[in-house]
Amino acid sequence: MSTVQEIEIAIEALPLPQRLQLYRDLPSLIGRKPEDLEWQRASLENFFTDDSSDDAVYNQL
User: Fold this and answer.
1) Could you give phi then psi for residue 33, rounded to 5 degrees?
2) Which residue from 18, 23, 44, 60 has the fewest beta carbons nearer than 10 Å?
3) pTM of the prediction?
């Protein structure tokens, strides 16, 4: 089992208040600003929901 899997299992085992605290503290724990993660989340959501007809050319490769 990888370290990431162990961390995921440990997080799932936490009581809700501790998971919420971890969610709040996570950006600083991984050396990121909270607003940077918010921009990243928003851009990924947009990337996967944007299905412009202009992109059809890429579907034929």
Assistant:
1) -85, 145
2) 60
3) 0.53
